[in-house]
Design a protein that fits this description.
By secondary structure, the chain is mainly α. The protein contains 16 helices and 18 strands. Strand 9 (152-154) and strand 10 (159-161) form a beta hairpin.
Length: 601
C-alpha cells in the first residue's frame, strides 16, 4: 500500500502546484532562475542555485520537487552557459580591479597585487596553487601534494592523483590517464545519448499509438452506445408489442366478464319477477273465500314455490359472492425478465498497465547514492540490478561492491483471494501455485490468528496443490452407497468444494441462497433451497454430514436449483450453474470413478 499512498501524495502535491515543471533545462529546480554561477547538482541530476542551496538545505538533506532526497555535500555544477563572460572583479575588499589570479585552494580570485597579499595572509595556501585567471585548462589540485594537477586515476583506490603521487604512494596500483578516461567517458556518454534518443523515439511512438488507441476507444464507445440503444430500442418495441397484446387480452377478458355478469343479472331479474309473480298469485289465492278452489290450486302453487325457492338457495356461491376479478399474472415472468435485463450484456476493457504506479514503484526502489565532492565515479564500472534494493558494481580489477539499500520498499501489492475474488492485503499465499486466500475462505479454514509472514507458512501448500491420488485410490476400494466420510473422503470433498469455490466468477451466484423477501418466487419454485456456504458450514462446523454421497447430492442440488430457477439456457447464471456442473461431474469421474452417477440424481 505504500506506493499507493506515495502516488496519491504526489498527485496531491502536483494539484497544489500546477506550475511545477521538473524538466526545465538550464534552470534551478526551485526558483526557476536561469543558470548563472555557483550551481550545485542534486542526486536526481536537477540543478540548484546557491541561494536555494542555503534555503532548502536541512539536516535530512535537500528534498527536491521530484521527491528524491539528496544528502551530504553537493557536487559543483561548473558548466556555464555559452559565451558567458569570465571576467571577474578582485575579491579583496574595496578593490575593483579585474581579477588575474585564482587561489585553487579556496577558489577565490584576486588582482595580481592582492593575490600576493592573499598568499602572505594564508601561508597554508600553497603559492603554487595561485593560478592565472581565467584558467586556460581545467585544474584540479592533487589531494596528496596539493602542488600539481591530477592527471591519473587510481583504479584500486578510485581517486585522482598527479603522476608523481601515484608513483610514490600507489605504484603497485593500476591507473588510467584522465585524458584517456575523458575520451572513453565521452564515448560512453555519447552512446548513452544515442540510446536515450532511440528510447525517446520509441516513447514518442508509444505515445502516438496510445493517442490512436484513445481515438479507437472513442469510436468503440460510440459503436457500443449505438448497439446498446439498438438493443434497448428492440426491447422497447417488444415490450410495447407485448403491452398492446396484453391490453387486447385485457379488453377481451373484461368484455367477456361484463357480458357474463349482465347475463347473470338478466337471470336474476327473471328470478325476481318469477318470485314477485308467485308472491302476488299466492296472496290472491289466500284471500279467496272459496276454500275448495285454493285447496285445489295449493298443490301446484307449492310445487312451483319450492322450485322458485331452490333457484335462490342452490345458486352457486361464486355467483352470490359478487367478486368478479381481472387477474394480471406477471410476477414470475417479470422477475425473470428483470433478472435477465440486469444481467444482459457485459462491457469490459482490456487491462491497461498503470505506468504511474510502475514509475512510483521503480522510483521507490532507487538505490543510487549521493556523490560527495571528495568522491569520483568509477567510469568503467557496470551497474547491474541483482535484486530489489541491492546494486552490484563490477570494477576493472574484478572486485565487487554490494550496496544494500536499507530503505528498500516494504510495498506489498494488493492481490485478490482466489476463492472469493475480493482484493485485499493480509492473504495467505500458497508457495506452490501462488494462489492467495483469506483464512476463512480456504477449505479447510485456516486459524484466524495465522498471519501471512508466519514461519509455519514458509512451505505451505493449499488444498488444490496437495496430492490426493492416494485418497482417491482408497475410495476406489470402498462401497460408496451409504459410506461414511473417512479421512480420505473428507480430503476429496474438501478438494472438490474448493475447486468449485475457486471458479469464483461462476460460484459467486451460488455461495448463498437468494433473499426470501426480495425473491419470494424462488422459494415458491424451489422446495429445498441450499447453497455452497451451507455445505461448507455443515462440513466444517456442524459435522452433520455422515455420508459422502449425501454431500455430493447436496452439491448437485445447489446447481440443479439454480438451473431450475434461471430456466433459460442463455441466462448467465444458468450458464454458471452449467459450468460448475461440468466441473463437478469431471472431478467425481476422476477421483471417485466407482460411484454410480445415477445415485446422485
Amino acid at each position: 500500500m505504500e506506493f499507493v499512498k506515495t502516488f496519491k501524495k504526489m498527485n496531491s502535491d502536483m494539484a497544489n502546484n500546477e506550475n511545477v515543471n521538473l524538466w526545465s533545462v538550464g534552470k534551478c529546480i526551485f526558483c526557476k532562475e536561469k543558470i548563472e554561477e555557483d550551481l550545485k547538482i542534486l542526486k536526481c541530476l536537477h540543478i540548484i542555485c546557491k541561494d536555494c542551496t542555503k534555503r532548502e538545505s536541512t539536516d535530512s538533506g535537500i528534498h527536491c520537487k521530484c521527491k528524491i532526497v539528496t544528502k551530504g555535500e553537493l557536487i559543483d555544477y561548473s558548466i556555464t552557459a555559452p559565451n558567458h563572460s569570465q571576467l571577474k572583479i578582485c575579491w579583496e575588499k574595496n578593490c575593483q580591479v579585474i581579477a588575474k589570479k585564482i587561489c585553487m585552494h579556496c577558489k577565490s580570485m584576486y588582482c595580481k597585487p592582492c593575490s600576493k597579499i592573499h598568499s602572505i595572509k594564508n601561508e597554508d595556501h600553497n603559492p603554487a596553487l595561485m593560478m592565472t585567471y581565467p584558467l586556460k585548462k581545467e585544474f584540479v589540485p592533487c589531494p596528496k601534494c596539493m602542488n600539481k594537477s591530477v592527471e591519473v586515476f587510481c583504479t584500486k583506490c578510485s581517486i585522482m592523483l598527479c603522476p608523481l603521487c601515484h608513483l610514490n604512494f600507489h605504484q603497485k596500483h593500476n591507473f588510467n590517464l584522465l585524458s584517456t578516461m575523458a575520451v572513453e567517458t565521452k564515448v560512453e556518454l555519447q552512446a548513452l545519448l544515442t540510446d536515450i534518443s532511440k528510447e525517446n523515439n520509441h516513447l514518442k511512438f508509444i505515445r502516438e499509438m496510445q493517442n490512436k488507441n484513445i481515438t479507437k476507444l472513442k469510436s468503440d464507445k460510440k459503436k457500443i452506445n449505438d448497439k446498446i440503444d439498438e438493443r434497448i430500442k428492440m426491447l422497447h418495441e417488444e415490450v410495447d408489442k407485448r403491452g398492446l397484446e396484453l391490453k387486447k387480452i385485457l379488453e377481451t377478458n373484461f368484455t367477456n366478464a361484463v357480458n357474463n355478469i349482465n347475463m347473470n343479472n338478466m337471470v336474476i331479474n327473471d328470478f325476481e319477477k318469477e318470485n314477485d309473480y308467485y308472491y302476488s298469485l299466492t296472496s290472491s289465492v289466500i284471500d279467496w273465500d272459496k276454500i275448495v278452489e285454493y285447496i285445489k290450486l295449493s298443490k301446484i302453487i307449492k310445487d312451483q314455490m319450492v322450485i322458485a325457492k331452490k333457484h335462490t338457495q342452490d345458486m352457486p356461491k361464486e355467483a352470490t359472492s359478487c367478486k368478479a376479478e381481472l387477474i394480471y399474472n406477471d410476477e414470475q415472468s417479470v422477475n425473470k425478465i428483470v433478472e435477465s435485463i440486469q444481467g444482459m450484456g457485459d462491457i469490459i476493457s482490456s487491462k491497461i498497465v498503470s505506468l504511474s504506479e510502475f514509475k512510483i514503484t521503480l522510483d521507490s526502489n532507487k538505490v543510487l547514492q549521493p556523490l560527495e565532492n571528495d568522491q569520483f565515479p568509477i567510469l568503467k564500472s557496470e551497474l547491474v540490478m541483482i535484486q530489489p534494493g541491492m546494486v552490484k558494481l563490477e570494477k576493472d580489477n574484478n572486485e565487487m561492491i554490494i550496496d544494500e539499500d536499507s530503505d528498500s520498499s516494504d510495498y506489498e501489492p494488493l492481490v485478490n483471494c482466489s476463492c472469493c475474488n475480493q482484493w485485499t492485503e493480509e492473504l495467505i499465499n500458497c508457495t506452490c501455485c501462488n494462489k492467495f486466500y483469506h483464512n476463512n475462505c480456504h477449505i479447510p479454514s485456516l486459524a484466524k490468528e495465522l498471519k501471512p509472514k508466519d514461519p509455519s507458512l514458509k512451505f505451505w501448500k493449499c488444498t488444490l496443490c496437495q496430492d490426493i491420488i492416494n485418497h482417491a485410490n482408497n475410495l476406489r476400494k470402498k462401497n460408496m452407497i451409504g459410506g461414511h466420510i473417512d479421512y480420505s473422503g473428507r480430503k476429496i470433498i474438501e478438494r472438490i468444494l474448493l475447486e468449485l469455490y475457486c471458479q469464483n466468477e461462476d460460484s459467486e451466484h451460488y455461495r448463498d441462497c437468494l433473499n426470501r423477501e426480495i425473491y419470494p418466487v424462488y422459494y415458491e419454485q424451489i422446495s429445498d433451497p441450499i447453497s455452497l456456504n451451507n455445505i461448507k458450514q455443515r462440513l466444517e462446523f456442524d459435522a452433520s454430514y455422515t455420508s459422502l454421497v449425501d454431500m455430493l447430492k447436496d452439491m448437485k442440488r445447489v446447481l440443479t436449483n439454480g438451473k431450475t430457477y434461471y430456466s433459460s439456457p442463455s441466462h448467465p447464471f444458468y450458464k454458471s450453474a452449467d459450468e460448475l456442473q461440468i466441473s463437478l461431474d469431471r472431478m467425481i469421474s476422476l477421483w471417485i470413478p466407482t460411484l454410480d452417477p445415477a445415485i446422485l440424481e
